[in-house]
Write a structure and sequence with these properties.
By secondary structure, this protein is an alpha/beta fold. The protein has a domain of 207 residues: Alpha-Beta Complex (Spore Coat Polysaccharide Biosynthesis Protein SpsA, Chain A). The strands form 2 sheets. A 7-stranded mixed sheet has the order 3-2-1-4-8-6-9, with helices on both faces. A 3-stranded mixed sheet has the order 5-10-7. β2, α5 and β3 form a beta-alpha-beta unit. α4 packs parallel to α5 and α11 packs across α14.
Length: 397
């Protein structure tokens, strides 16, 4: 048996030394595997180390409960507001107001808000005039809500979102210590049956895994408007959205990308701090939403784009070189490719599911590899489509 293994090893060495293509494939596979390990076992595990510090009381929080303004922008969201707004208005928090900005709605939003204000005196409303026109009405609505706020600490969510618990506001606000200007939370999508829902939830979790872990490395590059916060004074000091008023998106991710500095941004990862939204019901609707988000990624800081790009390229390179290894080394390559695949897959699935558990998401067991390959291909398609089609007019609602 040992003689057979020795002969096999010598045979493989001879093939490798005398075949340049095999050398290139092997080196690519090893480099891509190592890069993927750096991301999954190094960068993406920061969240667990941080959670451990929180449990041990090694993270300082603000327990003084400062007054807060919650800002929600709504365009034709009367059904969602009726269902979800009470969950925001009934938070277990001593002093806060909720400001709903009616962005030119032509449904029953105005009437609903008027009725709800009788029951909830801390509900305030304002509106954008019906004939007002802006490149991005969402930025104008957010700005109007900020100007209407009575308090310095601002928390943002969407009209189609609801917090997982009544402690949501407490958990987000506790991160506003003296040096904190921004707090990034996690916005999940509700579980439903079907492959589209699986795709959306996996995409949302992996994006959250990226920006939350990178923020812990003091290099925050984005947040989601479904669950984030910053100080009113900070918004004014940084000139708000003035740097990207020409864009039809970016009220959340570009604001964070431009203004997050070392030490001024914190994250909240308690499962009870998560907000939930109803996902899109069709693949086309989801692609339109995703294309709007991707339209701002070109404006990210160079280092952030490198971080995302290296992960994406190493992932695609891993699968391509894995397939090439299985072919050029056949039949030994098939066994080698299987072993290498398992080395990466076990690390990936373990980290993804541990992150899902931390954030109160359902775990992913089947189809991870398919989703892992499919998502970057969808992103690439949407990028190419955007470049070769006429300028899109994305609407925030």
């Amino acid at each position: 048996m040992s003689a057979y293994l020795l002969n096999t090893w010598e045979f493989l060495q001879e093939i490798w030394l005398n075949n340049l293509s095999i050398q290139v494939v092997t080196i690519c596979l090893v480099v891509c595997l190592l890069l993927q390990w750096v991301y999954y076992l190094g960068i993406y595990t920061r969240i667990f180390r941080y959670a451990r510090k929180v449990r041990k009381g090694k993270v300082a929080f603000n327990n003084n409960y400062p007054p807060v303004s919650v800002i929600i922008c709504a365009r034709n969201e009367s059904i969602n507001l009726e269902q979800y707004l009470p969950t925001v208005l009934e938070q277990d928090y001593p002093d806060y107001e909720v400001i709903v900005v009616n962005d030119r709605s032509f449904d029953d939003t105005e009437d609903l808000l008027r009725l709800m204000s009788y029951k909830y005196p801390h509900l305030k409303t304002t509106f954008i005039p019906e004939r007002a026109k802006f490149i991005d009405s969402k930025k104008m609505a957010v700005t109007l809500g900020i100007k209407s706020a009575s308090h310095d600490v601002l928390i943002f969510t969407d009209a189609d979102c609801y917090p997982r618990s009544k402690d949501w506001l407490q958990l987000m606000v506790r991160n506003f210590t003296d040096n904190t200007q921004m707090v990034l939370g996690y916005g999940a999508y509700c579980y439903q049956k079907g492959f589209l829902n699986l795709l959306i939830r996996f995409d949302t979790l992996t994006i959250g895994m990226q920006y939350l872990n990178l923020a812990l490395g003091k290099r925050a590059y984005m947040g989601v408007g479904r669950n984030m916060g910053y100080r009113q004074q900070f918004f004014y000091q940084t000139a708000g959205f003035s740097k990207h008023l020409n864009l039809q998106s970016g009220d959340d991710d570009l604001f964070v990308n431009e203004n997050s500095k070392k030490g001024n941004t914190r994250i909240e990862i308690d499962a009870q701090s998560v907000t939930l939204s109803t996902p899109k019901e069709s693949f086309t609707q989801w692609c339109m939403q995703k294309a709007r988000h991707l339209s701002t990624s070109n404006y990210y800081r160079f280092g952030n784009k490198c971080f995302i790009g290296i992960e994406l390229l190493s992932r695609l390179g891993f699968y391509v070189s894995l397939l090439a290894t299985a072919c050029v080394y056949y039949p030994f390559g098939l066994l080698l490719a299987t072993v290498v695949f398992l080395l990466r897959n076990i690390a990936q699935v373990s980290v993804i599911n541990a992150t899902a558990k931390q954030l109160g998401e359902k775990k992913f067991y089947f189809g991870v590899t398919l989703l892992d390959i499919l998502l970057p291909l969808i992103n690439l398609f949407l990028h190419i489509k955007r470049r070769f089609t006429s300028k899109s007019t994305y609407k925030w609602k």
